[in-house]
Design brief:
Layout: H1 2-13, H2 17-24, E1 28-37, E2 43-52, E3 60-67, H3 72-88, E4 94-101, H4 109-122, E5 132-136, H5 142-156, H6 180-195, E6 204-208, H7 212-223, E7 227-233, E8 236-239, H8 246-256, E9 266-268, H9 270-273, E10 280-283, E11 302-304, H10 313-322, E12 326-328, H11 330-333, H12 336-350, H13 356-381, H14 385-404
Helix pairs in contact: 1-14, 2-14, 3-14, 4-5, 6-7, 6-12, 6-13, 12-13, 13-14
Length: 408
């Protein structure tokens, strides 16, 4: 899917064959095995991957995910998207992504720590503040980043906070990092409503996913006066015509672990949730949920892609033909996380902490600038928002490669 998107844009940009090949393929694909002693005494071998898409514009940046379905192809696709995301936001990074094939929900804290430290040691020659900077992703969190920081720093002999982002504040993490991605999704959704002459206050939204991204998207949209009519998670979906109380829902989820059973809502089929009437639809969980089958049934005005790759190429074709939905493509819409990760990395080098207000203000400025750049390009060239965003990003990388030339 990622390669198909790239080829479509490379054709649009008329990239020559040399630059097309150099931009498309990852710089490094690293796979490692990690024997880990489980609490039972059994030794299990896990498989881990790290893909570094390009180092042309700086160190690679990207998350580390723990999930049973992780494989090298998925990680490579996500690294490619991260490359375009960083270029679109004009961050001095290439794209990276990592993953370990495991089920973190079935593992103890001790097992996860041993797995994380072993993975860090296995890829130690290929990471560093100026080479590869990891961050939390699906199934990982700030504690995971703390273990990586400690392992790398122990090897170096001194604290190296800039080895990862998304760290705890006590280890020189950044204020605003936890809510950055969701805040950015909500901020850009409001920008798209304004752009399409639609009111923000009183608008309605449906959010797929109530994890870190989905929950913060919901909180921020609610603070703008948007009614959150429907929310789903892995266990089900809920609906309320007049809007859900997201703060009460957060307390419910903290107690039960799911949105299902929330007293002030009705259950709804998760697939049907995506096709309910709303102003903003924000898929913030899984990839490939907007497909050729359901794209024609969507009743939203703004599609804000909080997840990576939630819309398939087949769905894109349908949406392009419809022309009545403003798509905020994933490489722009969920770029808040990597942008605030960049702020954290900069703060680590400066040995200086910014306030949450400073962080979120800088984030909104950068997101708005990129949003205007993408919408202007789309209008000027007569292309979709996704093609516009990816064209800007891929041309940025291609120009950098052309300027640097090719080492013999």
């Amino acid at each position: 899917m990622a390669a198909a998107q790239f080829d479509r844009v490379a054709d649009f940009l008329n990239l020559n064959d040399e630059l097309r090949e150099r931009c498309k393929w990852p710089k490094r694909l690293i796979s490692v095995t990690m024997p880990v002693k489980l609490d039972s005494g059994e030794v299990k071998v896990f498989f881990g991957h790290r893909v570094q898409h390009h180092l042309t514009r700086g160190p690679v940046k990207g998350g580390l995910r723990y999930h049973p379905a992780v494989d090298l192809g998925e990680v490579a696709a996500l690294a490619m998207w991260m490359n375009w995301k960083c270029a679109l936001m004009d961050l001095p990074y290439g794209g990276g992504k990592g993953g370990i094939t495991c089920d973190p929900r079935s593992m103890s804290i001790g097992e996860l720590e041993r797995l994380t430290r072993r993975f860090t040691m296995e890829i130690l020659p290929f990471i560093g503040p100026e080479i590869d900077v990891m961050a939390p992703d699906m199934g990982t969190n700030e504690q995971t980043m703390a273990w990586i920081t400690d392992t790398y720093s122990t090897h170096a002999g001194y604290l190296v906070p800039s080895i990862v982002t998304g760290k705890p504040l006590g280890l020189q993490g950044s204020a605003g990092r936890a809510q950055a991605t969701g805040h950015g999704v909500a901020f850009l959704a409001s920008s798209a409503l304004h752009k399409n002459n639609l009111p923000v206050e009183g608008a309605s939204a449906v959010i797929q996913g109530f994890g870190n991204v989905g929950s913060h998207t919901a909180y921020t949209l609610a603070s703008y006066g948007v009614k959150i009519r429907g929310i789903s998670d892995v266990q089900g979906a809920i609906w309320h015509d007049r809007g859900l109380d997201v703060h009460a829902l957060r307390e419910h989820v903290a107690k039960t672990g799911t949105v299902v059973g929330f007293a002030n809502a009705e259950p709804i089929d998760p697939d049907q949730l995506l096709c309910q009437p709303c102003d903003v639809l924000a898929p913030c969980a899984l990839d490939r949920v907007i497909t050729g089958d359901n794209a024609g049934k969507l009743q939203c005005k703004i599609l804000a892609e909080g997840a990576n790759g939630p819309t398939t190429p087949e769905a894109d074709a349908v949406l392009d033909q419809r022309g009545d939905i403003h798509v905020i493509p994933d490489i722009l819409c969920n770029a808040g996380g990597v942008t605030v990760s960049y702020f954290e990395w900069v703060q680590n080098f400066q040995h200086f902490q910014w306030t949450e207000r400073e962080v979120l203000s800088k984030l909104e400025t950068m997101l708005q600038r990129s949003f205007e750049k993408v919408t202007s390009f789309a209008a000027r060239q007569g292309v979709s928002q996704r093609v516009a965003a990816q064209s800007i990003a891929i041309k940025t990388v291609a120009d950098a490669k052309a300027q640097r030339g090719m080492f013999p």
